[in-house]
Amino acid sequence: MPPFYWNETVTVFNRCENEQTGLITWIKHILHNCFWKESNNEVTVGNVKLQSNGHIVRIPQSPLYVSPTSWNNLPNDTKAAKFTLQTGDILLKGTTDFVVDEMQEGHRMNDFIAQHEYRLCTIKSVNENVKLPNAHYFIRGE
């Protein structure tokens, strides 16, 4: 059971590329009882201000999770039954009805990012902390 303060819902968007057509689709999974923390860092170098946004997300261990290698080896038509966490995938704090369709203007991932930029992070690294008493996946993102 996750700690009481792991009370966020997170939507994972897994990038899936069709090897024959090159078409990219995004498979959406909604996960509950997650932890989400944002940090905004600002550094001034000379007269230039640099900003970076960092995210830490913790997702409870799930039987639906598979490693990126295993997920990438699944046939595309079975990937929706599982989720993974890999560099470049997108996380949304909360849920959305938005359906990503790279072939339809206004429904591409770039459109989604523009609409939800303040609740998003892109996965930069993942640690599978599944041997801890509070087994979870630890994600750093931007």
Describe the structure.
It is a single chain. It is built from two helices and six strands. The model has no long low-confidence stretch (mean pLDDT about 90). It has a six-stranded antiparallel barrel with strand order 1-2-3-6-5-4. The protein has helices spanning about 70-75, 110-115; strands spanning about 10-15, 25-45, 50-60, 90-95, 120-130, 135-140. The relative contact order is 0.23.
Q: Would you summarize the structure shown here?
A:
The chain is built from two helices and six strands, in the order βββαβαββ. With 142 residues, the protein is mostly beta strands.
List keywords for this structure.
2 helices, 142 residues, six-stranded antiparallel beta barrel
Give the SSE map:
Layout: E1 8-17, E2 24-45, E3 48-60, H1 68-73, E4 90-93, H2 109-116, E5 120-129, E6 136-141
Antiparallel strand pairs: 1-2, 1-4, 2-3, 3-6, 4-5, 5-6
